[in-house]
Write a structure and sequence with these properties.
Length: 555
């Protein structure tokens, strides 16, 4: 009799549960739910105004999504709970929860209901940049070698800058926090009753190393004497390898999800990293672009190399036995949506309605009629800062070359091209530093739904791009890890490589460079590089000066 696993993908705006047949990777059904509180980047639920660069979430949303998506997906699939042997989850990271001794998030306690620092700091919460800058400076002063594993810079998106910001700005929240957890680890705790920090998030987002552990007590003390014991006091517990079994569904979690008590639960994983086995990628030289609101570039290698601006290199971080490299762009789908929400005239919306399409489709239809370079526009893809290779969230977006005849579709295309240039910059940085990119792959909503975007990426990067077979690669990957947590004896797998061989894969369709487009984009890319370095490497810090003035005027 067939056995099944469930993967739950917790994204930036919503969660999705997927029911998958073990052995074939056949996807039976899925269910999605938007987070009721969404992303809180302007106001708390009580109406309290947030400062710029804040991005918070509410933990109750994650529990509500579990209670809604898993039962609905199960009902649609017709699968009996008795035949589900494993559950895996993936999550955005670094998304930080501060909890008390019982594991209750502080924002769910009456005394902290109105304190923004008690809420979950989402991955794109960027207001800890000052702390990140100071961490980088002190690490360099002390000659800390761990900094090399992160391309020379710690990001404000990560765990410790957010913890330090909490200590600096809300010491009462820090004092009341028994421990800081990744949101993914917190959800696993709620499912199993057991705390199991996962090595993927710890390695990429909390500066933990399989061979060396966390940075030294002396480093944390140099940051702030109050942080000297932060690891022992606020980040305690064993680090579990990816694919490990965190525990089993408790009776309480069974009542919430409809699954049976005793169902195996895998340790959590990062949404981007879990997608590689879903695409069948398990060998060195493969790079996967996980394209959504942001894009993560996950790369497999055999040796540890130091790549400037990477988000990290972690042994066994993606596939056991290989080095997993991460880089990324903080704003991809997010800035396409921004453009639609703020810059498109009403007549375009009316035209889209007449044609029975959405605005993305209309702008794509119009933009793909243009030749590369025809608009005269060039953009920098930093609407949400730069994650790689500059690692600087204080950088902002820019568009150059506009005239009184510039049309919305030309601007839209320029934004798409900017993200493609940013990806090429990442690829070239890896290759210049001894990490060859032999195969380029993509997954996510953009990769599956927008051939126009993917062709531009193929032309700009001058590479063949293959797309993951699944429309829901993170959820599929999580289900695969759930099957590994269950183990072969119960109908699952003993390794993620075995699971990837049977359940992962790519589409037969691919995207190949068009020579005449490649020639033009080569010229345009060189202009992008000049602008990238001029505004991003310190020659002209006007973006940062403007941002500082903006913050001062908003206080």
């Amino acid at each position: 009799m067939a056995k099944y696993a469930i993967g739950v993908d917790f994204g930036t705006l919503s969660a999705r549960a997927l029911v998958v047949e073990i052995g074939t990777g056949r996807e039976l059904s899925s269910a999605t739910m938007n987070y009721p509180h969404g992303v809180m980047d302007e106001y708390l639920p009580d109406g309290q105004k947030l400062m710029p660069d804040w991005a918070l979430q509410h933990p109750q949303d994650y529990l509500d999504c579990l209670a809604h998506t898993i039962p609905e997906a199960m009902q649609k699939s017709g699968v009996c709970a008795e035949d589900v042997i494993g559950l895996g989850i993936d999550f955005t990271a670094c998304t930080v929860v501060c909890v008390d001794k019982e594991g209750t998030p502080l924002c769910m306690k009456p005394e902290f209901l109105h304190n923004p620092h008690a809420y979950i700091k989402l991955w794109k919460h960027h207001s800890a940049q000052e702390e990140a800058n100071r961490m980088n400076a002190i690490a360099r002063e002390r000659g800390e070698t761990f900094l090399d594993r992160y391309g020379g810079k710690i990001s404000s998106e990560w765990m410790v800058p957010k913890i330090w910001q909490t200590l600096q700005e809300a010491p009462e929240v820090y004092a009341a926090t028994d421990r800081f957890l990744e949101a993914g680890d917190w959800v696993v705790l709620r499912l199993t009753g057991a705390e199991a920090r996962n090595a993927c998030m710890a390695g990429y987002k909390a500066m933990w190393s399989k061979s060396q552990g966390y940075p030294s007590r002396e480093y944390f003390e140099a940051l702030d004497p109050r942080l000297a014991n932060v690891v022992a006091e606020k980040l305690p517990g064993k680090i579990y390898p990816i694919g490990a079994k965190a525990g089993e569904i408790t009776p309480e979690a069974a009542a919430l999800t409809g699954l049976l008590p005793g169902t195996a639960v895998a340790v959590a994983n990062v949404d981007a990293h879990v997608s590689l086995p879903a695409a069948g990628l398990v060998k060195a030289g493969d790079m996967l672009m996980i394209m959504g609101t942001s894009t993560c570039h996950i790369m497999l290698g055999e040796q540890e190399r130091i790549v400037p601006g990477m988000c990290g290199v972690v042994e066994d971080g993606v596939i056991p036995g290989l080095m997993g490299y991460e880089a990324g762009q903080s704003c991809v789908g997010d800035h396409f949506n921004w453009f639609l929400d703020t810059c498109v005239p009403e007549e375009y919306a009316l035209e889209a309605k007449r044609k029975g399409m959405d605005l993305h489709q209309l702008l794509t239809e119009k933009a793909q009629e243009q030749k590369p370079g025809e608009s005269g526009l060039m953009a920098l893809d930093w609407w949400n800062g730069n994650r790689s290779v500059l690692v600087d969230v204080d950088l902002t977006g820019m568009m150059l070359g506009m005239t009184l005849t510039t049309k919305p579709e030309e601007m839209y295309r320029a934004l798409v091209e900017a993200t493609a240039y940013g990806t090429r910059m990442i690829i070239e940085t890896f290759e210049k530093n001894g990490v060859p990119v032999q195969g380029l792959y993509a997954c996510g909503g953009i990769a599956k739904k927008n051939p126009f975007v993917m062709q531009i990426y193929a032309d700009v990067c001058n590479r063949q791009i293959r797309v993951a077979r699944s429309n829901q690669a993170p959820a599929l990957g999580s289900a695969m890890f759930g099957a590994v947590a269950a183990g072969k004896a119960r109908g699952g797998y003993d390794s993620i490589v075995d699971a990837a061989g049977e359940m992962g894969g790519v589409d037969t369709r691919d995207y190949r460079p068009i020579p005449e487009n490649v020639a033009v984009y080569e010229q345009l890319y060189q202009e992008y590089v000049r602008l990238h370095d001029y505004f991003g490497r310190g020659e002209n810090d006007v973006m940062k000066r403007l941002k500082k003035i903006k913050e001062e005027q908003r206080r």
